[in-house]
Amino acid sequence: xxxxxxxxxxxxxxxxxxxxxxxxxxxxxxxxxxxxxxxxxxxxxxxxxxxxxxxxxxxxxxxxxxxxxxxxxxxxxxxxxxxxxxxxxxxxxxxxxxxxxxxxxxxxxxxxxxxxxxxxxxxxxxxxxxxxxxxxxxxxxxxxxxxxxxxxxxxxxxxxxxxxxxxxxxxxxxxxxxxxxxxxxxxxxxxxxxxxxxxxxxxxxxxxxxxxxxxxxxxxxxxxxxxxxxxxxxxxxxxxxxxxxxxxx
Amino acid sequence: xxxxxxxxxxxxxxxxxxxxxxxxxxxxxxxxxxxxxxxxxxxxxxxxxxxxxxxxxxxxxxxxxxxxxxxxxxxxxxxxxxxxxxxxxxxxxxxxxxxxxxxxxxxxxxxxxxxxxxxxxxxxxxxxxxxxxxxxxxxxxxxxxxxxxxxxxxxxxxxxxxxxxxxxxxxxxxxxxxxxxxxxxxxxxxxxxxxxxxxxxxxxxxxxxxxxxxxx
Lengths: 249, 216
Fold this sequence. Notes:
The structure holds two protein chains of two kinds.
Chain A: H1 2-16, E1 28-38, E2 43-54, E3 57-69, E4 74-84, E5 92-94, E6 101-103, E7 110-126, E8 129-142, E9 147-162, E10 165-179, E11 189-198, E12 204-218, H2 221-226, E13 233-248
Parallel strand pairs in A: 1-13
Antiparallel strand pairs in A: 1-2, 2-3, 3-4, 4-7, 5-6, 7-8, 8-9, 9-10, 10-11, 11-12, 12-13
Chain B: H1 2-15, E1 19-25, E2 28-30, E3 33-34, E4 40-41, E5 45-49, E6 54-59, E7 64-67, E8 72-77, E9 85-98, E10 110-113, E11 117-121, E12 124-133, E13 136-145, E14 147-152, E15 158-162, E16 165-170, E17 179-180, H2 203-206
Parallel strand pairs in B: 9-10
Antiparallel strand pairs in B: 1-4, 1-6, 2-3, 2-5, 5-8, 6-7, 7-9, 8-9, 9-12, 10-11, 11-14, 12-13, 13-16, 14-15, 16-17
């Protein structure tokens, strides 16, 4: 009996400094609005505002980007982003007051970042079915936390025309976050999107999508200091139901 | 007698027409002369149409042309076998149907030009539209049947456009690769009959390049 109690106590003690449980909520709400303004035939300014629920947390992002079309097939640009509520590896912290381990409230996180990106795109037809595909490679720097990330993103889109009129698009998008100076994971975050864009007009294109995200948090700075020999990784697997719209000025 | 022959020939030349109007809707004219069904049309003249109008003309060589509303087409030179027919779309849009003939081997019997392009035709049905956008002129051409050889007058590039494909020839850009343009499916290719000839597609509205639209 004594041995049994001892085992339970040590197990609780062990678990206390390792994040427990897993975020795996389905159907989190996700909203995206995008505004595009063509400066001329080559340059476009785009603003994206996103909100999503991350299990019990809230995340919001605003992105401002300047894009230049080199040709129909090549685009590059610069982005600046402001992020609210994003959880980072180092948010698993030891409280100096209570001596307990807990995730820092992500609502306290406000990050500023910037990116450079290069997008390659191509259209192709299968019979009279029109498709486009793109590969977008982005280097992101989170200036607030000094986190460098490489973000390759691949998209394939089917463009549906009826009687010569562009009715809707169906797209599949997949992006990976490859951490360059943090995390012990090769891929820290994966996104999968399947969406439908209704070409209501040249100005307004509403859309709906489902998304799936896998994210892994590994050893925080506090954890490395206090438990240098130990390791952990906590996964978050969430699905989303999203809506949004694109507006073209 | 000689005088009579000369007068007869002269009169014949004046009266001879190169084509006849098959259908008119709204207003169409050559200069100040309004065209109506049955009017005769000669080359070296300019046809203009009013908004929401159209005219169908059949030429003696078998070529049929449907000029859409708010357009201007110059009938430059007419072929009698040796040299090619040349028609210039100066404004708006037109449909062309050229019936292949076996007169001159390796010749281009019909040539359609715009400010930015020259299109050589060897038996085909195709559409040409001219868009003025600020300081730039875009020529759109798409082919329903046959092949049209398209040349940019600014870059001198030439590309063959096949059935089902379209091309853009811009005054300040390279020739685009010929490709399937789904919006051209909405064009009304009908050239004969007296009903249902109207083309309701607004090229400026319908045209879009899916690659230059950011969807994300």
